[in-house]
Amino acid sequence: MSQPFVLISIYIITMQLTILFSPSTSHYSSPSPPATPFNESPPTSPSSTYSEWLSAHATYYSVSDDTRDGVDGACGYGDTHRDGYGITGAAALSETLFVRGQICGGCFELRCLEEDVPFDKRWCVSGSSVVVTATSFCAPNYGFDAESDGGYCNPPKQHFVLPVEAFEKIAIWKGGNMPVHYRRIKCIREGGMRFTITGSGIFNSVLISNVAGIGDIVGVKVKGSRTGWIPMGRNWGQIWHVNALLQNQPLSFEVTSSDGVTITSYNVAPKNWTFGQTFEGKQFKS
Length: 286
What we know:
Keywords: Cell wall, Cell wall biogenesis/degradation, Membrane, Secreted, Signal. The chain is 13% helix and 33% strand. It has 286 residues and is mostly beta strands. The longest helix has 19 residues, at 3-21. A 6-stranded mixed beta barrel has the order 1-5-2-4-3-6. The protein folds into 2 domains: 46-185, RlpA-like domain (Barwin-like endoglucanases, Beta Barrel), CATH 2.40.40; 194-280, Expansin, cellulose-binding-like domain (Immunoglobulin-like).
């Protein structure tokens, strides 16, 4: 065999091996990790907005208003006063801010926009602010234009509906639809996170409330003594669910907030837990 033929053969074999094992041309790769069940788009990290004041408007509701049921319910908390958010601490947010319930549990500081125009200054409580929690949804009314009195909560409006007691901490109630500044802040809560378990059979629904720190939750897992960690899906607001046989075993929960912090509460519910009970776990730092 001649030397040129040997060299050509070696070159061809070398090229074939290079093509076969080159990472850039391989026909096989490790399988992609499975998508997280009930995956949601992660919200923008709120850490950059702690000291950044943004513009919005605020109106109010009173205890006797027919809208009170709507203000209490869209996040699943039910009786917000009983659950520790206080009479003045619960607020409904417009569609732009509500983000389909992902903001539920987040805390906001509001103050009257005194520097807007001289007319508004008459209705502001100077130097005062109020802290509220996102507990419900102010639904848009597309029968009205966003700039009209009936379209306060229409996109792209950033709007808060406050209890009148909270509204009066920053403005005179006769002022009506008031321009405000708002910013995200850390939530301060007493005690640990609360896990209220409801459902039937293999359907388990868990309301997570009294959450400190950034306040809103983006991921939840549950673990029984006879199971591994099971991701839960957001049902609505801060109610999470999973189909699994979890009865007759202690339950642990792993909760991740929107700023990426994860807290694990082991054996929160005892082996003999029943539907309708509420249990207290660990808490995020404020």
